[in-house]
Write a structure and sequence with these properties.
Number of helices: 5
CATH architecture: 3-Layer(aba) Sandwich
Mean pLDDT: 94
Helix content: 40-55%
Low-confidence stretches: none
Distance between the termini: 10 Å
Largest sheet: 6 strands, mixed
Oligomer: single chain
CATH class: Alpha Beta
Shape: globular
Number of strands: 6
Order of helices and strands: EHHEEEEEHHH
Length: 150
Amino acid sequence: MCNIENYLKKENILCDIDVADKNGLIKKLSGVVKKNYGINSQTVYDIIMERENHGVTGIGNGVAIPHGRIKDLKEIVLVVATLGTPVDYGSLDGEEVRLVFMLLVPEGNNLVYLKLLSQLSIMCNDKNTRFLMMDAETSDKILEVVRNFD
């Protein structure tokens, strides 16, 4: 089983952010990837939005897990954000999103990619864990919740 904590870095956690909509959210998270990994934020945005066009990654219960593969990425990247004001993400259950995990993997790293998506989904389906993360005010608190779940 993949350990989410191994891929989650404090500098990739944003708490209580405010964005106007789904596009603004993806742009904000793409900016974190640019800042911390040097990957062009427009490239990240385009890859995530292309994936969204194939099927929305809002998994329900206020959670979204946008994800994609990036050719020149050197390592797996996980960015987490909690939203001060929920946004419409087009989730099948109609619930606005308050918690987002953006997962980016190098092309060809499919097994770990699928395992991490599965683990994130399992973790977010746990109501207590989900609410603890949504209400977290600091990156340390999110790391603690993930650590306790793993």
